[in-house]
Design a protein that fits this description.
Blueprint lengths: L2 H4 L18 H50 L5 H10 L5 H16 L14 H21 L6 H11 L7 H10 L2 H10 L10 H15 L7 H12 L5 H4 L2 H10 L10 H7 L2 H14 L9 H16 L9 H9 L35 H7 L5 H11 L3 H17 L4 H10 L6 H10 L10 H8 L8 H16 L3 H4 L15 H20 L3 H6 L9 H21 L16 H18 L6 H7 L1 H8 L6 H19 L10 E6 L3 H9 L10 E6 L13 H14 L7 E3 L5 E3 L8 H20 L9 H7 L6 H7 L1 H11 L13 E6 L2 E6 L14 H13 L4 H14 L2 H4 L4 H9 L7 H6 L1 E4 L7 H12 L2 H12 L16 E5 L9 E3 L4 E4 L5 H12 L9
Parallel strand pairs: 1-2, 7-8, 8-10
Antiparallel strand pairs: 3-4, 5-6, 9-10
Helix pairs in contact: 2-3, 3-5, 4-6, 5-6, 5-8, 6-9, 8-9, 8-10, 9-12, 14-17, 15-19, 18-19, 18-20, 19-20, 19-23, 21-23, 22-25, 23-27, 25-27, 28-31, 29-30, 34-39, 35-41, 36-37, 36-38, 37-38, 43-45, 44-45
């Protein structure tokens, strides 16, 4: 197109939007916002300045006006209402104001007391009432903060006039000062007075004022409950209150303490409102003022006192009152040598604050006077008066049970003394029988045998009143059993003069069934979190604590029943509630799962939490039949063998050991001690005869059984110094220092492993152990009833002491015991400073318990620990806890039952020319039936190396008992291969020859050369 029309290519560009700008839209918005914020900030500053100036002008004006009022007050003593108004409105809290308040108080005191009442007769009545309320609080505040001030006494005297019954509107005035903190200020006044200033003239006035409201407010009024609540929380919780008051003031105050109105207290609300320190001081002060007046108080007040002390103790952390108990138990735990010390018979109690722990010794931080007063709670005099006072009133008696139960928990080391005092006090001699017959026997607790329905019954809130007496009976009777010999336990004849059991055997049968019906659901419950953290209805006790208490009592009762049967057959079994086959399978499975997921030793409590079935087996195993538990035990062993690759009975031996016949123990120790846990594997034993030649025979297990038999005879020989025997020829470790030397402890460790190997392989060992020693295998303590077998004379002496009717202090005993060690007598203390602690009527049970514990547990602590260490290398402790002592003895050495020939014949297999119908075989069984038990046992040992039959019958013998022919030469003796339980019997034609040759063979005593 023509250029004239298009113009130049360099066209000038014109911005029609105005002048150009380099600012973005966002920058413009930010600038506008900033300007707006600056204007707002300026307005705020101006507004704040105006407010500050107004406040300052107000303050200045107020100060000016207050100074004007003060000057007016200083220059006049005009009408009391106006003059008091000047004081109140001009009050600023300065030193000069304190002087003015002091002048006012002295002026009022100089005038007649009625001067405070006069304005109520004028038109200024309402104004005066308000002024009097204000000035009363000023006087209280100042006197409480400065009780040693020269003005404190006049202030307190004026308050006494204001709160006197003669004062007009005193009820309203009293109500006002109570709501505004009367007791708070009085408490400050008392605590702000140093102990060395206890003669201060303000103290009598302060203490008198604490009682003033009780003369004005009627006990029937609604506010009286608040009044006594404030009095207890503010005044009675003052630390060492009795020691802050002069004797005459203390005497007057003691008579004014409103003890007779304790039943008006809202106990739980009071307990919840206090700090732990305040609770302790409240208890300590109550223990000074209340017990001396208890006999004159009504049943309702005694019940309220019991309830209050129970709530206070329960609300404090575990170990508050008896912090040394755990340490003492550790020092005394010589007998509890298992890894399960925390689950021993002395179960630590827990309350709602069981997760909370004080420092190691919280009482060390308290004043010694407070510590001593708190020890009044479990004292014989205190327990005795409470038992006596409640003996004739059922309602207060019911409150005694939770109190005593709580006291047991708070002072575990004094349980025996508390129990003895409760039983020996007036009105307490039959307390066990009373609780059983009046409360426990008729309760609905433990009446159902089904775990599910019984659990629902247990958590029913309507049954809350029945739990305290039930649990109290469990605890006090368990404590009673610790110092009750078997002769006393079973002595229930009415005409007998000997000490006897407070409950009959029939009653114990019913009681033990109740216990079992409650304990079993607590283990069987699948939701163990409820058991661990849930509480018994109406109590501050966890279900886990209850379970421990019941388990302890059940074990003690079952132990007596095991020694001398008093319950019906199958009394302890709960098999009607469970499927046994499923139970066995589940228990074996759960044990295997534990192997996979948990390493180390598991306590009984942990097992109960993880697995209900294993919890039952480890805590109340007697619920399951003994044969079933033996079967489970063998399953556990087989699983362990499988995990270790040891489940081939005739596989290649892992270890070899050469043993001389005349040095079985020494060579066995030298060859096998170092193996430790490896002893579980197959061991090949080679015997050398007296000439050093190897004895013939292939070790298929029988040679090792022979080795164990010979080793047992040697190491358990009491002449060798490691073991001693009771009067019943039952073995226990030698308590002398010789047996505690390092080398001897290694022997105990080795013997433990060897015995564990026998249990592991199912080999019976012919040795009998003392019951108190077997108890240590199970992690249990032994008590007085076991002492009869160890030291009959000491047992008789302790029983005599227990029932001594005179003053025990006349016997001149103290808390020491003499120890004769290889002719050297040494004195051991049973308690710190025991030589200076006399044995009294009140603490004799503690002495009996400690002496029994020392003899049965502490003396053999190290020996048992070494033995159990070796045993645990082979057998897990939780496997053994499925049995009691008597059952454990059967597991070790077999049953004492006669050999059942019919059972043996049914489970025998034949080889060679023999079968069940062969003439020689028929003669053989005829001859066996003609033998006595001793001869039958000799035959069994000859063939199997063990003289006792298998626990569950000959069907469990592996390999099976076998008989095969050994030729037709009747001049030969029968021979055996114990490794395969084989009897090689010549084909005899005559019964007489067969019997004569058989007896000659089984009594020959030869070794494996014979076969």
């Amino acid at each position: 197109m023509h250029q004239a029309f298009l113009g130049s290519e360099r066209v000038r560009k014109i911005n029609l939007g105005g002048s150009s700008s380099t600012h973005s839209q966002q920058q413009i918005l930010d600038a506008v916002r900033q300007q707006r914020e600056q204007r707002q900030d300026q307005r705020r500053r101006q507004e704040s300045a105006r407010k500050l100036q107004a406040w300052w002008r107000g303050r200045s004006e107020a100060k000016r006006y207050r100074n004007l009022l003060r000057n007016t007050f200083d220059t006049t003593t005009g009408p009391i209402v106006d003059w008091t108004r000047l004081l109140v409105l001009g009050w600023g809290g300065s030193a000069d104001d304190h002087e003015r308040l002091g002048r006012w108080s002295r002026t009022i005191l100089q005038a007649a007391p009625d001067s405070l009442n006069a304005p109520f007769q004028t038109s200024q009545r309402d104004s005066w009432f308000l002024l009097l309320r204000r000035v009363a609080m000023l006087l209280l505040t100042v006197a409480g903060a400065h009780p040693l001030s020269i003005h404190a006494v006049p202030h307190l005297q004026v308050i006494s006039y204001i709160l006197s019954p003669q004062q007009v509107s005193v009820l309203d005035l009293t109500d006002h000062v109570l709501r505004k903190g009367l007791y708070h200020h009085l408490s400050k006044g008392i605590t702000n007075t140093p102990l060395e200033s206890k003669t201060s003239p303000s103290l009598p006035l302060l203490t008198k004022l604490t009682a003033a409201p009780f003369e004005i407010i009627a006990p029937t009024s609604l506010s009286f409950s608040n009044l006594i609540h404030d009095f207890c929380s503010q005044i009675m919780s003052i630390p060492i209150l009795p020691n802050r008051l002069p004797l005459d003031v203390l005497r007057a105050f003691s008579s004014q303490v409103p003890i007779a109105h304790l039943d008006k207290l809202r106990i739980q609300e009071l307990t919840d409102s206090l700090t732990d320190d305040s609770k302790l001081h409240l208890m300590a002060n109550l223990l000074v003022f209340v017990p001396p007046r208890l006999p004159k108080l009504g049943n309702a007040v005694v019940g309220a006192y019991l309830e209050l002390m129970t709530y206070l103790i329960n609300s404090l952390p575990a170990g508050t009152f008896d912090p040394a108990h755990k340490a003492n138990m550790s020092a005394r735990s010589g007998g509890n040598i298992g890894p399960d010390d925390s689950d021993g018979e002395e179960t630590p109690f827990t309350t709602s604050t069981e997760a909370t722990r004080w420092p190691d010794d919280p009482m060390s931080a308290w004043d010694s006077r407070t510590r001593n007063r708190l020890q009044i709670i479990p004292s014989p005099s205190h327990i005795g008066i409470l038992v006596e006072l409640t003996s004739k009133d059922g309602r207060s008696r019911q409150k005694l049970f939770p109190f005593l139960l709580t006291t047991f928990m708070a002072w575990p080391s004094k349980k025996d003394t508390i129990a003895h005092c409760a039983r020996s006090a007036k009105g307490g001699s039959s307390i066990i029988k009373e609780v059983w017959r009046n409360w426990v026997r008729s309760s609905k607790l433990g009446r159902k045998a089904d775990p599910g329905s019984d659990w629902m019954n247990m958590i029913d809130p309507n049954l809350a009143p029945w739990w305290p007496p039930f649990l109290f009976l469990v605890e006090i009777y368990s404590q009673d059993l610790l110092t009750m010999g078997d002769d006393e336990f079973f002595a229930t004849s009415v005409g007998s003069t000997a000490p006897r059991n407070p409950l009959t055997l029939d009653e114990l049968t019913g009681f033990s069934k109740q216990l079992l019906n409650i304990a079993f659901p607590l283990y069987w419950n699948e939701d163990q979190d409820i058991i661990k953290d849930g509480f018994v209805p109406g109590m501050k006790i966890t279900w886990r604590t209850v379970r421990d208490m019941l388990t302890n009592c059940l074990k003690l009762l079952h132990e007596r029943d095991s020694r001398r049967k008093f319950t019906p057959d199958d009394h302890w079994l709960m098999t009607s509630n469970i499927d046994i086959q499923s139970f066995v399978e589940a228990a074996v499975y759960e044990e295997a799962k534990l192997d996979d997921n948990i390493s180390g030793v598991i306590s009984k409590r942990q097992l109960a939490y993880i697995s209900p079935r294993l919890g039952v087996l480890n805590n109340i195993p007697f619920c399951i039949p003994f044969p079933v538990r033996v079967k489970i035990f063998r399953h556990f062993v087989l699983n362990d063998m499988s995990n270790l690759g040891l489940n081939e009975p005739l596989g290649r031996p892992r270890h070899k050991c050469v043993v001389r016949r005349h040095q079985v123990a020494r060579d066995g120790y030298d060859g096998l001690y170092s193996l430790g846990r490896e002893l579980k594997g197959r061991i090949q034993i080679t015997f050398l005869d007296q000439w050093g030649n190897e004895e013939m025979g292939i070790d298929g297990g029988g040679v090792f059984k022979e080795f164990l038999t010979s080793l047992s005879k040697e190491v358990f020989d009491t002449d060798h110094g490691l073991w001693l025997a009771t009067s019943r020829q039952e073995l226990y470790p030698n308590p002398h220092t010789y047996a505690r030397e390092a080398h001897q402890l290694n022997w105990y460790r080795f013997i433990g492993r060897i015995l564990g190997k026998a249990l592991y392989d199912g080999i019976l060992v012919d040795v009998a152990f003392a019951s108190f020693f077997l108890a240590k295998w199970l992690g249990r303590q032994s008590y007085l009833d076991d002492l009869a077998s160890l030291d009959p004379e000491l047992y008789k002496g302790l029983i005599y002491l227990k029932h001594y009717e005179g003053n025990v202090e006349d016997l001149a005993l103290n808390f020491t015991v003499n120890d004769n060690d290889l002719g050297v007598t040494t004195t051991k203390t049973l308690l710190p400073n025991g030589k200076n602690i006399p044995v009294t009527n009140e603490n004799r049970l503690q002495y009996i318990t400690l002496v029994s514990h020392y003899r049965l547990n502490a003396q053999i602590k190290q020996q048992c620990a070494a033995f159990f260490e070796g045993l645990s290398d082979i057998i897990r402790p939780n496997w053994l806890r499925m049995f009691n002592q008597q059952e454990l003895q059967i597991l070790i050495s077999g049953t004492e039952d006669p050999i059942n020939v019919d059972d043996l014949e049914r489970n025998t297999i034949y080889g060679g020319v023999f079968d069940a119908s062969h003439d020689t075989i028929r003669m053989f069984w005829s001859v066996i039936r003609s033998l006595d038990q001793k001869q039958r046992c000799a035959l069994l040992r000859f063939v199997t190396s063990c003289a006792r039959p298998p626990l569950l019958g000959f069907k469990e013998l592996y390999p099976k008992f076998s008989i095969r022919d050994a030729g037709s030469d009747e001049s030969r003796l029968p021979t055996s291969s114990t490794c395969v339980n084989l009897l090689k019997l010549p084909v005899y034609k005559s019964p007489a020859v067969l019997k004569q040759k058989l007896l000659q063979a089984i009594h020959s005593g030869a070794g494996f050369d014979l076969s």
